[in-house]
Design brief:
With 109 residues, the protein is mostly helical. Helix content is 61%, strand content 0%.
Length: 109
């Protein structure tokens, strides 16, 4: 009888802890929902310009007089990404070489 009494007490403590956790989570969800609803209620309509196209001459104002197209230097961007990839590869290989490489967790295999 003492063994089952101990188990029953443990089960009661466990269930009480679960109830407290569920209550805490429920309160957090309720507060979070209230905050989101309050923020949505306080939101105002953003006023912007007309969606109609403007009569600006010269095409895309971000480029140097050309029409729509690529902005910046895409070849330099691709080269820079390749250089960063190679540098990370070299750094990784150097790190593995310096630290002794992968270790076998089970010797004899």
């Amino acid at each position: 009888m003492t063994g089952s009494g101990r188990l029953c007490a443990r089960a009661r403590r466990f269930l009480a802890a679960v109830r407290r956790g569920v209550t805490t989570i429920g309160a957090g969800v309720a507060v979070g929902t209230g905050v989101v609803l309050a923020l949505l209620g306080a939101a105002v309509v953003a006023l912007a310009g007309s969606p109609a196209p403007s009569a600006a001459a010269g095409g895309d104002p971000r480029s140097s007089g050309q029409g729509p197209g690529l902005v910046g230097d895409p070849v330099a961007a691709i080269v820079l990404v390749a250089v960063i990839a190679l540098a990370s590869l070299v750094a990784t290989l150097l790190y593995v070489r310096v630290t002794g490489g992968p270790r076998n967790p089970r010797p004899g295999r």
